[in-house]
Please model this.
Amino acid sequence: MKFESSVTAVSWIPAEAVKGFLGVPFEMGLAHYDDALPEMLDNLDEWHGKDLFREANELKGWIEVEDGKIVAHGQEGGGRIGVTRLKIGPKTVTVKAKAMPDIRAVPEVTDDYVRFIQTCGGRTGAPAPRPVPRKPFFQVDSAVAWTTLALTIYKDGRSEYELIGASPFPRHWVYDHTGKLAMETGLTDFTTWINDAFGDRTPWGAYDAPAMVKQVESPLERELTGMVVRSGKLKSRELPSGECLTKQGESGSDMYLILDRIFAVEVDGAEVAQVGPGAILGERSGLESGTRTATLRARTQCRVAALPQRYADERELAQIARGHRREEGR
Model:
């Protein structure tokens, strides 16, 4: 019997993710951020043709089992890389990206399973001249973005997947074999990436950064986030590690949209959950007479945007709150 499975990582640049002088083209409209990807991955080639992502890593694997033993296995798929589109006056210039060679580890074969590992990535073809803090101290090419996926297929047909490594930029979303969004990274650190992710500090050198993974936000949260981003009124601010965004028992009416990194949710001094980019927080104050029911503390330097409650009615606030209670019960 043949068992097949797959896992796909798709990478995109969310709004306001690029800072410093290299963010100027985005602010001027010469370059563009990406819309959030759909919840379901239907056809990766169509997404590629529509320029919906910057890069993708599609890992497919299969095993054959006879009389309870794994007798054959194989790996397919690979990387896809997008293009950079620059708007110069009335014209749009397309700059071809530079794909790195796919890296496939020798599969780990045991009596019970086969584990496949694959790294895919690349860099934009547009130059990004800048000083960097290590040799050669000045870099012309852009930094390299990548993901490293693992897929394990068991002899009983079960399969598991992992995002075991990823560049700190851009954002990486992972879809399971059914095409459902199953995992997201909680880090979009442009500064670290542009200063460090080149040469030996990539999987094509001697380094693979561990991925900061978070739970997937709800469809309603994604919908509200899209409304705010499209409105053009997204104003972000940064909080240093350890600072509280809200404190339990205090009054407050604003909701918040997490743009980057991870917040700890604390109730009565104990951490009950962690939430990351795309999550909407503070919704319970609108249901609890304006009183904060939890403390939200930045685990690292975080970036958030205030989200006035007019963006959601009471029914939607209650729906978001129910989802958060399920997370805290885990």
